[in-house]
Design goal:
alpha/beta; 4-stranded mixed sheet; 8 helices
Length: 179
């Protein structure tokens, strides 16, 4: 009874939100400033960073919600799906990072490609999630994403510094995905 009602309430919350909610939370001017920060960051290291802000999960994900598959697992699966869809895995140095926000659940996922994941442990990623989460709770989405970009940039510079004499192609778009 109660489990079914909770699932139904959650599905309704996700169906209520759409990309217009994302665009309201991340208006064009903010998206442009964030894209410029991504571009500036990528000039300092060989990594690639993508930011994806999604209003709600598709129904196909929500139907799988149960005790064995909690919302946190569904959010992680969705972030991994975006990681593949946006080709973050497909970079020369295997050091791409996706910063994923799911507005309906106030969930955050950082997905790092294998070369970067080898250098940065789960605790360090969790610290970034916690700090971004605190900013979001305070209603400071842009400040939080800016801080997250700075933290991701710092680990990329530490492990994948861009040599000054080497070319540094921009392998992926810098635009913020608003879904």
């Amino acid at each position: 009874g109660r489990l079914v009602m909770n699932k139904l309430a959650r599905i309704l919350k996700h169906r209520w939100l759409d990309s217009s909610d994302t665009r309201r939370r991340v208006p064009d001017a903010m998206a442009q400033r964030l894209a410029a920060r991504v571009a500036a960051s990528e000039g300092r290291h060989t990594g690639e960073i993508r930011v994806c802000v999604e209003a709600a999960l598709p129904l196909s994900y929500l139907w799988r919600l149960n005790r064995q598959t909690p919302m946190s697992a569904l959010t992680r699966q969705r972030a991994m799906s975006w990681f593949g869809r946006l080709r973050v895995w497909d970079t020369a140095h295997n050091n791409g990072v996706l910063i994923y926000l799911l507005l309906a659940e106030h969930s955050i996922e950082f997905v790092a490609d294998r070369a970067l994941a080898a250098h940065v442990g789960p605790g360090q990623w969790q610290g970034m999630v916690d700090r971004l989460s605190a900013q979001l709770r305070d209603g400071r989405l842009e400040d939080g994403l800016t801080q997250a970009l700075e933290e991701v940039s710092a680990v990329l510079v530490e492990h994948f510094l861009q040599p000054t004499d080497a070319p540094n192609p921009n392998e992926l778009p810098n635009l913020v995905v608003r879904a």
